[in-house]
Amino acid sequence: MSRIKSAFENGKAFIAFVTCGDPDLEVTAEVVRAAVENGADLIELGIPFSDPTAEGPVIQGANLRALTGGITTDKIFQFVQALRRDVSVPLVFMTYANVVFSYGADRFLSACGRIGIDGLILPDLPFEEKEEFLPFCHKYGVDLISLIAPTSKNRIAMIAREAEGFVYIVSSLGVTGVRSEIKTDLSSIIQSVRENTKIPCAVGFGISTPEQAKRMSELSDGVIVGSAIVKLIEKYGKDAPRYVGGYVKAMKDAMR
Amino acid sequence: MTNSKGRFGIHGGQYIPETLMNAVIELEDAYNHYKNDPEFNRELAGLLNEYAGRPSRLYFAEKMTKNLGGAKVYLKREDLNHTGAHKINNVLGQALLAKKMGKTRLIAETGAGQHGVATATAAALMGMECVVFMGEEDTVRQALNVYRMRLLGAEVIPVKTGTATLKDAVSEAMREWTSRISDTHYCLGSVMGPHPFPTIVRDFQAVISKEIREQILKKEGRLPDAVIACVGGGSNAIGSFYHFIPDENVRLIGCEAAGRGIDTFETAATVNTGRLGIFHGMKSYFCQDEYGQIAPVYSISAGLDYPGIGPEHAYLHDIGRAEYVPVTDEEAVRAFEYLAKTEGIIPAIESAHAVAYAMKTAPQMQKDQLIVITISGRGDKDCAAIARYRGEDIHE
Fold first, then answer.
1. Residue B57 has pLDDT above 60, yes or no
2. In CATH, what class is B53-84+206-389?
3. What is the model's pTM?
4. Do A154 and B181 count as a contact with CB atoms less than 8 A apart?
């Protein structure tokens, strides 16, 4: 059991996503600090990938900006190590299977363990393929986060029973990105998850407004927000940290 | 990997978002049911023969044989199929399967446009909606095929992300599929992506080697010494190889697009320059950098301009059953012109990569040896681009 549990001990959890190196690592560091100071309970750090097939245009753009700026997995490891000196909330990496595979699963996860990464989210690694990385996650004490989608149906129990850290409930069909409304019947999905596991579940994909955060947090244990934050970074660049801080505060307040 | 399905040695698998897992499981179940269903097979055979024009000819290229002065050269004429390429074999199979599954909408990626045209054709025939994703760069290179798809009633969406070529079209089609699954089948065009696609597409394309085998036995009374096909994702190649895999004496040669050369960055020769990775739903070889970022590959051929290769090819390479050789733009263009002038056949620039390698290898073989080259498609679509390559500015 990693530190992830602690993120859910301060009321409903607010989980903030940011792509590392968008537009550069100094901004990423300040955005993370601003989010934490304003109530973010867990930070999802995106390691950019050239072809992020689960992302909508906003996060695709962030990936491209970061890679164009010369970001690499090694630079991100150094960055997290430095960030860990003053940021104590749980941190998880969000990236794609090839980034981990190409680095070498053992080498990648050993670095995660060493620099204080608590979990790993890989949207292109379904239940059937998790053995690819799970042994290395366990070896270095990193939770491999499972996702459950609106289409999971008969698969929910199987996935939830072996889930670690928290269960990532994908709110809607499609890719990441802001949505005006979320139509999926999440309460029945979350009920099935809870019948099969005691670990917390957080809802992500499409959440941007305090009203949505409030509603989703009433159903679950927390919300994950990515594209809305990335949009602020895209818009404000070096000035983004204070806007992200204000945004996180409004979202966390709505969930109290 | 106890739970992992669709493996070819270490390759293959299902590396896709959870959102799509039930869709691929449903597809696998439907395929396993219908592949042995006599009614389904009768309907498909009827479409392949009556509509697509199968069996395609195995043509003895006598002038080319004499000119090269070595092995006897046969051409498997997939270019004579309806819509002008082998792509229709797979598309008719998948569209029929999708219809049986109750799907009313087909989505597809396309590079050169041949798979997109075939999908738009099948959708028109079967009364289904059709959306084709095509890299913006390719919509320029293959403008005629864009028009053909629209004429057939399909919507063509130019993809602007990444390198705006085939890999980006695949990514965008996958994104579209995650957002609309219930009425939509993703008609994948090559032997790639997550299981069961590499198997389904291979099975539907295996008709090529089934026919070559029967035809060459009838004409020559023996099996060929080599079967040569071009490889992007690898659907016409696996189709040409499949029924010869157990025959160890038949050399299987896949021709990869080397672009400006395998010692340059402007190449798409995956086996020759790539390494093991996980992308687009499968474990296989990919052109990538040291951190696993997928490389922006290049080839004059939009259909071979892909940074990966199907998992079964990766496996055939690993066990040494098939050889994968690089062919440059310049060699392919020369072969394109050569076949036109020698045999009066204009091959697709993709297929010209296979012709180019045959031109190198045939003269080194004995006169009683046999080579089969799969001409996967016809070259009408490429004429303007090749003219431009040769410095002639013609307008379509």
1. yes
2. alpha beta
3. 0.97
4. no
Delineate the domains of chain A, giving CATH numbers in brackets.
Answer: 3-146+211-255 (3.20.20.70)
Find the mean pLDDT for residues B101-130: 97
Nearest-Å Rg of the Cα atoms of chain A is 17
The pLDDT tens digits of the residues spanning B175-216 come to: 999 999 999 999 999 999 999 999 999 999 999 999 999 999
Q: Three-state SS string across chain B, please?
A: CCCCCCEECCEEEEECCHHHHHHHHHHHHHHHHHCCCHHHHHHHHHHHHHHCCCCCCEEECHHHHHHHCCCEEEEEEHHHCHHHECHHHHHHHHHHHHHHCCCCEEEEEECCCHHHHHHHHHHHHHCCEEEEEEEHHHHHHCHHHHHHHHHCCCEEEEECCCCCCHHHHHHHHHHHHHHCCCCEEECCCCCCCCCCHHHHHHHHHCHHHHHHHHHHHHHHCCCCCEEEEEECCCHHHHHHHHHHCCCCCCEEEEEEEEECCCCCCCCCCHHHHCEEEEECEEEEEECECCCCCECCCCCCCCCCCCCECCHHHHHHHHCCCEEEEEEEHHHHHHHHHHHHHHHCCCECHHHHHHHHHHHHHHHHCCCCCEEEEEECEECHHHHHHHHHHCCCCCCC
Q: For the beta carbon of residue B246, count every other beta carbon within 10 angstroms.
A: 8
CB contact under 8 A, B17 and A72: no
Query: B290-318 pLDDT, tens per residue?
Result: 999 999 999 999 889 999 999 999 999 99
Q: Which residue among B209, B235, B284, B376 is the active-site one?
A: B376
Domain boundaries, chain B: 8-48+87-201, 53-84+206-389
Q: With an 8 Å Cβ cutoff, is B67 touching chain A?
A: no
Q: Kindly determine whether residue B1 and residue A131, on different chains, have CB atoms separated by under 8 Å.
A: yes
- Maximum alpha-carbon separation in chain B: 56
As a whole number of angstroms, the distance between CA B18 and CA A174 comes to 11
pLDDT, mean of residues A91-113: 98
Domain B8-48+87-201 CATH (choose: 3.40.50.1100, 1.20.1250.20, 3.40.190.10, 3.40.50.300): 3.40.50.1100
Distances (CA, A) of A7 to A43, A163, A164, A254, B188: 10, 16, 14, 17, 41
Helix (H) or strand (E) holding A61: helix A57-68
| 8 Å CB contact of A173 and B179 | yes
Q: What residues of chain B lie within 8 A of the CB of A50, using their CB? A: 162, 293-294
User: Nearest CA to CA, how far is B361 from chain A (Å)?
Assistant: 36
